[in-house]
Write the structure tokens for this entry.
Amino acid sequence: MNELQKSLILESSSRFLIPQGVKVSYGTAGFREDASILSSTVYRVGILAALRSLKTQSVIGVMITASHNKVSDNGVKIADPSGGMLSQDWEPFADELANAPSPQQLLQLITEFVEKERIPFDGVRPAEILLGRDTRPSGEALLEAARQGVTSIVGAVASDMGILTTPQLHWMVRARNKGIKASEQDYFEQLSNSFRCLMDLIPTGQSKCDGMNDKLVVDGANGVGGAKLQILHKLLNVLDIEVRNSSQDEGVLNDGVGADYVQKEKVAPRGFGSKDAGIRCASLDGDADRLVYFSVPPESNAPIDLVDGDKILSLFAVFIREQLSFLNEKEDIKNFDKSRLGIIQTAYANGASTNYLKHLGLEVNLTPTGVKYLHEKAADFDIGIYFEANGHGTILFSETFIEWLEVRSNKLSSGSKEAEKAALRLLAVSKLINQAVGDALSGVLLVEVILKHMGWSIHRWNELYHDLPSRQLKVKVADRTSVVTANAETVVVRPPGLQEAINAETAKYTQGRCFVRPSGTEDVVRVYAEASTQEAADTLANCVAKLVDQFLG
């Protein structure tokens, strides 16, 4: 780094000093705080993104959003060259960068990191960053802070992509680094073209069934997703979609609306009621990276029928398994030894969903909690499907498998019609689904076309299995690091004896399952329990919470 570069960083960082007493920490996907204290953090993430771009010689994304948090919060996420989250190797540096107390210490930290990582400052390929934001009022000023962070690195270019969903920005970064067109219009065209292709491949007479209502009503969480879905809807005149709680309405972002609210509270969002009984409903979260479905009962005070991320995963798995079975019926392609379909869940997935998927003969893998772990594991398979119950998830296709499908779909055209259609369907799914990150817009289109393909109503879909009753609790502890887990957080290794005590308690309950794990952000241990009745699940959770308290005090 030359003197000009150093003086640029010192000068620009003096305009973005950390507020007194503020310390931020990098969470699952970035930083998230009250918007009023975030300017310095977002400015520094702009620097980090420019350094990441120089290091990887690729386009990087910076998204200003706080997802399902309240409207007064905001945050910043980084999209790596693949379109996925920032590499975990860089997370400690992100933390240090965000909390460096003065411009001088910030410069020292950057200088040391640049040397350690051997980041090139030769100007051969300048850094390029795509910036996006959601509809929060604080977004514009924070995006400007990010821009100033990016441009404090000599030669770095920041492109403002405007108001987007988080998955749109991740998609654009992935597309740019693959050398394909990556505007918002290109995103809409790819989704709508692949959706139409899947609609055209629906078996004759299957697109309508008893009890299947054509209409879909979507809760947009008063965020960016509703408005974007309306644009998609205009491109797709085959779908009957009504969007409520769009950002263009008067409602408050994530206030009594959105996928997070619906999934946690198990109630209908604002603007939905008994008048919607029998209609298929869906809910996006604030930045449209989560999706859940639900149906409203005729009685106004009855709970909704929730169709969560586990059920969305199961629907996708059933459909993809069916297409693979058509392909495998063709003798000459049975021997493709790499066509592995993997299902990825965390221990929080309802046991009934895991049992259902295993009963289908599918390979189910557990990872620690967090999308980054799920995404990483899904990439080990030719087709990897992951979802969390909260509605965040996607499907990954390996490049090798896509190439194989393309070759096979051409070869099959002279042979089996069903196998040819199955290959074309899987290729269309690989283009419709956002392989960078969970995307509620592409997710809703894939759910809709699969339901039409299967001829299923939302009620038929919801009957795939019945969730086991569960209970989650938090136990305050002096030091959360005193609990160490293994086997995707399902087994306690430390303190000794705690796991044996949990096993003994769990064995008393029919269909009992229980695990504990330390929180990633606060000094609490989280308890999850399942059993055949709600009363049993509650009792099991409370008994294990007492055990945690006894062992840890």
